[in-house]
Amino acid sequence: MALYLKLAIRNVFRNRRRTLITLAAMGFGAAAIIVFGGFVHSIYFGVRESTIRSQVGHIQIYRKGYSDKGNLAPYDYLIADYAGLRAELLKLPHVKAVTARLGFSGLISTGDTTTSFVGTGVQPESETDLSALAVIVDGKELATRDPRGITLGVGLARAFGVKPGDDLTLLSTTRAGSINALAVKVRGVWESGEKAYDDRFLRLGLPEVQRLLDVENGEVQSVVLLLDKTEHTAAVREAIDRLIREKSLDLELRTWEDLALRYHQVRELFGRIFAVLTLIVSIMVVFGITNTMTMAIFERTREIGTVMALGTRRRGVISMFVLEGVALGALGGLVGVLLGVALARAISAIGIQLPPPPGSTRGFAVQIFIVPEVLMQAFRLSLVTAALASLYPAWRAARLNVVEALRHV
After folding, report:
1. Between the chain's N and C termini, which has fewer beta carbons within 10 Å?
2. How far apart are CA 328 and CA 332, in angstroms?
């Protein structure tokens, strides 16, 4: 086998021109996988973090039963002892911030214009870290010292034509089912990058929402956690599950993976596109290697006949050509990895700007992540496809008639 490997490596460089063309094709194919794979992973990361840090947090905790029936009777599943629960949660490792929310909906009016809204009662100071990607574009953030101040999504503010300092009236249904109103003043306008979110949502201080809904002080709908790293979500979830069991708390939790529907849709879409690209590159590599190996058979027919005349079995001839294909695949994969890493760094350094994707209001700069799994995938793809592509030429070489091969000119 060592002899066959030496012969395979020598034969790879026998026709340098054809070998270089084949290696270039394989290298660019592997580089395309690395660059596009890195771009896809950057999209995953961007959508994931924007969803977490502008809307859902890493983990949300509810009273047990809220996930099943909370949409029908949201105020029947409120958490009473938020202060005690928050103190316990802040003791857990990797927990960066804990805040409470109380969702509500209703009508918002300027006096002349009225429309529906979806709102969230928040703790202003605690919400700052969690909503870091919901950037204030006009005015100021919520503040405890300004309890009647609200912040609006930029789409909702534009639809009303309001700006910071303008007065509005909120109408909503209380816990008991009656109608209540609250006079508020616009404090700021924010943009999260999600058009559907920016067009409907507003935020108000939690005590004011509790007063509007006639909910007892201290009762909240959900407790939202922000962690130091998204990768620690599973570990923190296990710790909270353990805390709930040990203290027999009537609570349930959901992670960002359960709540971020758009993230999973984006991941499925780009995952399929990446699979199609990989298939195209594989076909390209197979045809390239097959052509190279087939041409090698025609050029080395007499050599193959001589080797077989000296006692080399057909299995040995097959091994020699397959090893030659593997050597080409390894070299092509190595070239592709080096080229892909160089292109990824160059494109990221240039910072090409792309327009906002569908459903978003923000463009973004192209970033290509260098992902070890994608590098290994590209190299492994070159190796495997090269080996498979060499099987048919190897079989043809082994089927040559020895006498006719020796006569070949």
Report:
1. C
2. 6
Check whether residue 160 and residue 200 sit in a common domain: yes
pLDDT of 226-262, one tens digit each? 999 999 999 999 999 999 999 888 999 999 998 888 7
Q: How far apart are CA 27 and CA 354, in angstroms?
A: 27
Half-sphere exposure of 307 (CA within 13 A, CB side): 22
- Using the 3D structure, point to which of 215, 249, 283 is the last residue of a domain: 249
Number of domains in the chain: 2
Question: Cβ atoms within 10 A of the Cβ of 204, count?
Answer: 25
pLDDT the model gives residue 197: 82
- Nearest by Cα to 318 from 306, 309, 328, 308: 308
Asked if 128 contacts 141 with a C-beta cutoff of 8 angstroms, the reply is yes
The residue-averaged pLDDT of 198-205 equals 89
Cβ contacts of 2-8, under 8 Å, gap ≥ 24 = 4/316, 4/319, 4/320, 4/323, 5/323, 5/327, 7/320, 7/323, 7/324, 8/320, 8/321, 8/323, 8/324, 8/326, 8/327
* Mean confidence (pLDDT) of the chain: 82
- Model confidence at 404, pLDDT cuts 50, 70, 90, reads low
Determine the Cα–Cα distance for residues 370 and 17; give it in Å rounded to an integer.
31
Q: The domain containing residue 221 runs over which residues?
A: 65-249
In a domain? residue 96 = yes
Residue pLDDT, tens place only, 223-236: 999 999 999 999 99
